[in-house]
Amino acid sequence: MPNFLHSLASPARFQRIANAVLPWVSVLAAVLLGVGIVWGLVFSPPDYQQGDTVRVMYIHVPAAWMATFCYAVMALLSASFLIWKHQLADLAARAASPIGACFTAIALITGALWGKPTWGTWWVWDARLTSVLVLFFLYLGHMALSAAFDDRERGGRAAAILACVGAINLPIIKYSVEWWNTLHQGASVFRMDGPTIDNSMLWPLLLTVLGFNMLFVVLLLVRIKSELLARRIEVLQRARASGRG
Amino acid sequence: MNAFLAIIGRDLRLATRRGGEAALTLGFFVVAITLFPFGVGPEPELLGRIAAGIIWVTALLAATVSFDRLFRADMEDGTLELLALAPLPLELAVLAKAIAHWLLTGLAVTLLAPVMGLMLNLPEAAYGPLVAGLLLGTPALSLLGGIGAALVLGARRGGALVGLLVLPLFLPVLIFGISAVEATLIGLPLAPHLLILGALLAVALPVGVFGSAAALRLALE
Amino acid sequence: MTRKQRRMTILGVGLACLAVATALVLTALSDKVTFFYSPSDLAADDAGHNARIRLGGMVEEGSVVKEGDGITTAFVITDFAQAVPVRYTGVLPDLFREGQGIIATGRMDQGTFIAEEVLAKHDETYMPPEVADALKAAGKWQMGDQP
């Protein structure tokens, strides 16, 4: 695996692979999201208790999953950057954190919209809501720290240390918040005795989940590519400036 | 061991002799607490109900304010580089500095908390769990906060950044510190909450020490 | 101490700390810890304490009564062993209904629980109404099997 990563770590090769993969993944993301969202919002049945309100789920649940998934990706990239010093891992971790923050914000906002009709309030200080909010703060801290240094390399290393510390703390935060207050329903899809969600709702949900995953890949690749180009421009400008001077 | 104690002693002496830096944190703690009766109204009943929360939250904020200075002065006068080169592992030096920081802020805040409790009409049964919780929780704050303080060395706008970085990490300590008080007030057992605070301290010890040391090495490059 | 020895020592100390943490958490969890009182808990120690507490349980079937002012609701929370009458003034959440699990925050007043806040615990089952009806018709409907 490290060898494979090493070979990926060359920016030129990464660009080649990214350019080859990007169109396919983009189309896949568009199709999955399009079908999943239309299916979920229009054709899937309403819930027996919540009625049409349940349709928020097709956006909310994938966004919430991506929020955590994205942090895990970011923490792994940060750890591999600290251990193997891959520039590309640093780039990717920093590209991932605003995307993760956006998914987290979407999960929080749709959660509030869902909470109002079902729980009777926009926001409750319930275990899952609170831990997602804290996750959002961790993303903000990561973004702020990586941007706070004049030396980009140092910002990246500091942010990577923070991401790793956050990854250790995240389960602890989640656990303590759960202890503190529990109102949110238990897990519906990943359970020992099979999903407690009807198939007519599970399928569109799985489609949007996959769609969000593909969207994440697309956004990540685009952000890494543009960051690589920005650095290239910087190098060229510096070269021209010193050539003239 | 001598070097370890010497670092603690040095930090304590510096804090007491250099214009009473230690008093600054305590001053902030007291002033911030006295703002709450103005903010929520002076009714003793209301204040009594939220007193433990006020004291805990203000203790977190006071700790956060103090982190900015934890490594900055040492960085500026070059002490940090000597610490990194010394035979004592940097991890232990960080631990010594965290202990000194706790003695100056956490312990002092813990000792002041009952007095603040009197001013806020804290229920009588709550004093024990409040002080016990602070005693176990504030060392964890000093350790975790060290990571934030070390990470922002050399960053622009370091002070405000420390708060954003470390306050989310403090959340578990706050939750169990408060739940210890609340549990006692409604007659539930206190011990599990204190045990968990102890567990958080045990986790904060390696995370804080290794995290801060790694961040300091980065700052010194 | 060589570099390798030092690294092993550091690693050992770190792992020891984590072991201590695990042991402490396990000890803490072996005590019975509750987040809210059940009606049975309340009945067991009715020392008449006037503290704010959280009461959790199911809304008893057929117990919900709207009072004259249109905004106050009286109902009974039960854990199928003991039951506590509750009064709440305010807008109830959508999912509040008979047989549903709720958590109410408030205090006891002369045998009635005066709630300041009522939160519905929404179950983790999602299905279309037809399926729910079919389940009920087939006698497989278990409304009370929430954690």
Describe the protein's architecture and organization.
The complex is a heterotrimer of chains A (245), B (221) and C (147). With 245 residues, chain A is mostly helical. Chain A has a domain at 59-186 and 202-238. Chain A has seven helices and no strands. Residues 182-188 of chain A have low confidence and may be disordered. Chain B has one domain (2-220). Chain C is an alpha+beta fold. Chain C has two domains: 1-33; 39-125, OB fold (Dihydrolipoamide Acetyltransferase, E2P), CATH 2.40.50.140. Chain C has three helices and six strands, in the order ααββββββα. Chain C has helices at 3-30, 39-44, 129-137, and strands spanning 53-59, 65-66, 72-78, 83-89, 101-109, 112-120. A five-stranded mixed β-barrel of chain C has the order 1-3-4-6-5. Chain C starts with a helix and ends in a 10-residue tail after the last helix. Classes of the chains: A mainly alpha (245), B mainly alpha (221), C alpha+beta (147). Chains A and B meet through helix 5 and helix 6 of A and helix 7 and helix 8 of B.
Overall strand count of chain A: 0
User: Mean pLDDT score of chain A, rounded?
Assistant: 81
Overall geometry of chain A comes to: globular
Order of helices and strands of chain A: HHHHHHH
Which percent range fits the helix content of chain B?
Answer: over 70%
Q: Radius of gyration of chain A from the CA trace? A: 20 Å
| Average pLDDT, all residues of chain B | 88
Describe the secondary-structure layout.
The complex is a heterotrimer of chains A (245), B (221) and C (147).
Chain A (H helix, E strand, L loop, with lengths): L1 H7 L2 H33 L13 H28 L2 H33 L7 H21 L4 H29 L18 H46 L1
Chain B lengths: L1 H16 L3 H20 L3 H33 L2 H7 L4 H30 L7 H25 L6 H28 L5 H30 L1
Chain C lengths: L2 H28 L8 H6 L8 E7 L5 E2 L5 E7 L4 E7 L11 E9 L2 E9 L8 H9 L10
Parallel strand pairs in C: 4-6
Antiparallel strand pairs in C: 1-3, 1-5, 2-3, 3-4, 5-6
